[in-house]
């Protein structure tokens, strides 16, 4: 009997230690939710970006032993790019980890719209790098929403600058005809107003053509394009809509060099299925493709070298992959900044929001991170939740993306007042008193 | 007027592509009275498998033959593990089973071959050519030719072979067919294999236009109004329905769409099909079912 009791005691002690072990281990961990989409028509974007994001966090864990000793943990939640499932993922993951979710990256404009108000209530920063609502750059009204690096509004003004540059000057835009082909969703509609304003400003004509999700057949739209005979086409596609658009452009003999896409229309997955029809097509981007960056080489060594990669190894260095690395760099740098203020420990969403709006990723810091040429300098503030704003343009040569411009700055003089006006309108509707930023 | 005809002919050619997918639905419905929700997933699975074998270095025709074998193997497995246990169950039960099958095939296909977008070149150029001021694509005419060949083969199969005859008997009444000695399991396996072949052809043609990716499973959405309009049991209905849907949705998008803010071609065919149901519930070529009560 005594012997059984001793065994029972040993088993009990073991179980107790087992229970305490993970709790102790969790105490020094920072949890990051991954609302990925591995399935559905947009899986290529979801797996590429989130896969690389997880790879970067794994790199910090493997190479540096975590961020100042705080290891990253994460959990995937499948959204299939569906708003309702995105909200469910947010609710499921926001409280995980010792301090709750560090931040939430929806990787979908629709999901961003669905969760950002919840984020403000729960004090979980919602980070939308290169997407989301443009007016959220005004941090006074949107303290927990961060459309970092560049918003659609900013990139749209850079796009018009690029077209102006190609035409020989902004004054040459007068009388030109532009067709805006957009995914008929919150994402696609985001730039309609600003395009209309720019059309009035520069004297060009713009006509908008929605394409219903997912965009499998666009014959009718492209026949209208043929009839309109625009000088330029702006493509705001997503997923299968992009190669289909390029193929249809070929079918109506529209020159691909005159099609300028947004960065969600500018990955390898967007052009390869279109084959020769994609050659010459131009797309905006806020980073290049390629593996020739020390940070990517480190990922290959410390993550893929240990067989801990989160996507197929051959996708490392593609556009979506490098965008995911940028998601990782920016997120970790925000947490680093927050740790400097609040201590080297797992932080709450509120503390990380402070880090996100006090980012100052200088050229020197980018070099130290091994991301020179991959990322543009980024400085955020309470007033400015965007930070960067510059865009490069790349052209598909039939085999790879080739950068064809230097950084083109957004027209902030146009964008900022519009953002403030829209944010103020939103604040009034929602009865929000904007913060005062010093 | 030239533009009107360009849109009309473009729409008819698009309709042929919808018909190709609709044919797969018709096959299964004719044989078992089941609306096969998994037809879109079959298209995706076939295209993924084909491209997967091509990437493994198999020549085009070998990859095609191996994929066809895989589709036939899948048909046998589906009959054995999904359909056979549900013989004589209400059609809604079989329909629900095909919904499950759809998720299984989508997951299995992407699990085996990956979720990456792949290019598919079947050697037919998608280049434009001009006729009387109208622009068309060679590829669309090639697709129309493929559809014509497929329809011809299916009509012969159904009308001139013993299996085809047995299939029609099974479609009419499972129990009566069993009673006269028709092997139901064999007929179902054959018809699912034929639906697999149709899915492969549709997958190759759609895949070479869109790339082989998850969205291929959504082409089924384009086939539904075709079936409603053409009838669920008629091969000719699938073709004629496809042509009507293709032409009307393109004409509507171009000439009516601007009044609704555009992007109406997704819902317009459904509205047209529903309106048609009010006049002829069984579809253009569907069989009128009269039940004695």
Helix fraction of chain B? over 70%
Question: How many alpha or pi helices of chain B?
Answer: 11
Q: Beta-strand percentage of chain A? A: 5-15%
The amount of beta strand of chain B, in percent, is under 5%
Averaged pLDDT of chain B, please?
88
Shape of chain A: globular
Oligomerization state? heterodimer
How does the overall form of chain B come out from the CA principal axes? globular
Instruction: Indicate the structural class of chain B.
Output: mainly alpha
Question: Order of strands in the sheet with the most strands of chain B?
Answer: 1-2
Unreliable segments of 5+ consecutive residues of chain B? none
CATH class of the largest domain in chain A: Alpha Beta
Sheet/helix structural class of chain A: alpha/beta
Domain count of chain A: 2
| CATH class identity of chain B | Mainly Alpha
Distance between the first and last residues' Cα of chain B: 53 Å
Order of secondary-structure elements of chain A: HEHEHHEEHEHHEHEHEHEHHHEHEEEH
Roughly how many Å is the radius of gyration of chain B? 19 Å
Question: Which percent range fits the helix content of chain A?
Answer: 40-55%
Q: How many E-type strands of chain A?
A: 13
Describe the sheet with the most strands of chain B. 2 strands, antiparallel
Explain this structure.
The complex is a heterodimer of chains A (438) and B (293). Chain A has 15 helices and 13 strands. Chain A is of the alpha/beta class. Chain A folds into 2 domains: 31-150 and 289-389 and 416-429, Rossmann fold, CATH 3.40.50.2300; 153-285, 3-Layer(aba) Sandwich (Rossmann fold), CATH 3.40.50. In chain A, α2 packs across α11. The N and C termini of chain A lie far apart (72 Å). The model of chain A is unreliable at 1-25 (pLDDT under 50). By secondary structure, chain B is mainly α. Chain B has a single domain (2-279), classed as ABC transporter involved in vitamin B12 uptake, BtuC. Chain B has 11 helices and 2 strands; from the N terminus they run ααααββααααααα. In chain B, strands 1-2 form a two-stranded antiparallel ribbon. The longest helix of chain B has 31 residues, at 2-32. Chain B starts with a helix and ends in a 14-residue tail after the last helix. The mean pLDDT of chain B is 88. The A-B interface holds A 38-41, 43-44, 47, 184, 208-214, 216-217, 219-221, 223-224, 226-227, 239-240, 243-244, 247, 250-253, 269, 272-275, 277, 312, 315 and B 3, 6-7, 10-11, 14, 17, 106-107, 110, 114-121, 126-128, 135, 137, 206, 209-215, 218-219, 222, 249-250, 253-254, 257, 261-267.
